[in-house]
Amino acid sequence: EMQATQHKQIVDILKGKEDSYDVPAEFSYVKKNKNKYLIEVEESGRFDHLALSHCIGPCLTQNQTSILDVVEHECMTNCMTKAFEVRALFDQMKIKKGYK
Fold first, then answer.
1. Looking at residue 21, what DSSP letter applies?
2. Chain segment 29-61, per-residue pLDDT in tens
3. Cβ–Cβ under 8 Å, residues 69 and 62
4. Taking the domain 2-33+43-97, which CATH number applies?
5. pLDDT in tens, 15-32
6. 8-state DSSP, 22
7. Distance between CA atoms of 59 and 82, rounded to whole angstroms?
8. What SUPFAM superfamilies is this protein classified in (predicted)?
9. DSSP states of 25-85 as a string?
């Protein structure tokens, strides 16, 4: 009987939370643009992986140890930084000029 009472109290509390919860108007924008957002997140992740894979070939030339030497590290850093700069420029063009 005590468990049934506690269960009913928990159900009532959760039901009250659901009934009294007001969804902000901004959430409708998120709901409408969810697929576009998810596609952009996927594209960004794909770009990161492609950029990294293209930087590995020219930068990691020693392959003598499992540790990067300074030259390889700087090459990877510069290569990835340049890739992110290019991505940022395309993102800026997309926002300002309607680039698709």
1. P
2. 777 888 888 888 899 899 999 999 999 888 888
3. yes
4. 1.10.287
5. 766 665 666 677 777 778
6. P
7. 13
8. Tim10-like
9. THHHHHHHTHHHHHHHHHHHHHHHHHHHHHHHHHH----SSSS--HHHHHHHHHHHHHHHH
